[in-house]
Amino acid sequence: MNTILIGIAGGTGSGKTTLADKLIDSFGDDEVSILRHDNYYKRHDDMCYEERSKLNYDHPDAFDTALLCEHICKLKAGEQIYMPVYDYSIHNRSEETILVKPAPVIVLEGILIFAEPSLCDLMDIKVFVDTDADVRILRRIIRDVKERGRSLDSVITQYLTTVKPMHEQFVEPSKRRADIIIPEGGENIVALDMLIERVRKHLKNK
Ligand SMILES: Nc1ncnc2c1ncn2[C@@H]1O[C@H](COP(=O)(O)OP(=O)(O)O)[C@@H](O)[C@H]1O
Ligand SMILES: Nc1ccn([C@@H]2O[C@H](COP(=O)(O)O)[C@@H](O)[C@H]2O)c(=O)n1
């Protein structure tokens, strides 16, 4: 199978997940598979919740990127993989896994995927979702309080101590590696349609 890997990067709250979900919703499971770098956050079973909540989750070392690369190579070779599942409410991987089948198009999304040369080398198309920092933090506050079991204070403290400095050190400079920069992400219908057309073209010629 001729498989292409489309990377969708961007800062927290930029709209990567929304864009990736809208893209895969336009195709069948046998046409497009999705991987999320967040699911590859390292396990920390040796620490208690309090200790885990203080870790820096915005540095490249927080992820098991070697395992993700191995999974991408297996999918490209036509093998299925079991993607780990991350549970933000406990700051750890859950016991679940998700079966991901090989497909002609694999979408990979995550804040730091362009900051990892080993991952960049595996990508055929690199898309960066670019959204202003004030919009991103407002979205993140709402999402983390509603969906990730966080308090307002914890979101603000984490943003100022790790999320913002790591964004400036790693995420923003990684934008230079992108082939396409999309303002605002999932609600950018023009950009979404262009991506859908690109995937259709690949599926027709695969
Ligand atoms: N263009 C947009 N306008 C308004 N809200 C948006 C937009 N894109 C995403 N959101 C919302 O912002 C939050 C973060 O978006 P998400 O796609 O999860 O971002 P990311 O994966 O980059 O962190 C979600 O609650 C989502 O519904
Ligand atoms: N235990 C964790 C693990 C990660 N995060 C934050 O998630 C952000 C990445 O996810 P997005 O959907 O926002 O791209 C990242 O900025 C980490 O700070 C967390 O809060 N807790």
Number of domains: 1
- Helices and strands: which structural class? alpha/beta
Can you list the ligands bound to this structure?
adenosine-5'-diphosphate, the ligand Nc1ccn([C@@H]2O[C@H](COP(=O)(O)O)[C@@H](O)[C@H]2O)c(=O)n1
Strand order of the largest sheet: 2-5-1-6-7
Radius of gyration over all CA atoms, rounded = 17 Å
Please tell me the overall pLDDT: 96
Low-confidence stretches: none
- State the CATH architecture: 3-Layer(aba) Sandwich
Distance between the termini: 7 Å
Structure overview:
The chain is α/β, with parallel strands linked by helices and 206 residues long. The chain contains seven helices and seven strands, in the order E-H-E-H-H-E-E-E-H-E-H-H-E-H. The strands form two sheets. The protein has a five-stranded parallel sheet, with helices on both faces. The protein starts with a strand and ends with a helix. The site of the ligand Nc1ccn([C@@H]2O[C@H](COP(=O)(O)O)[C@@H](O)[C@H]2O)c(=O)n1 has 12 residues, from helix 1.
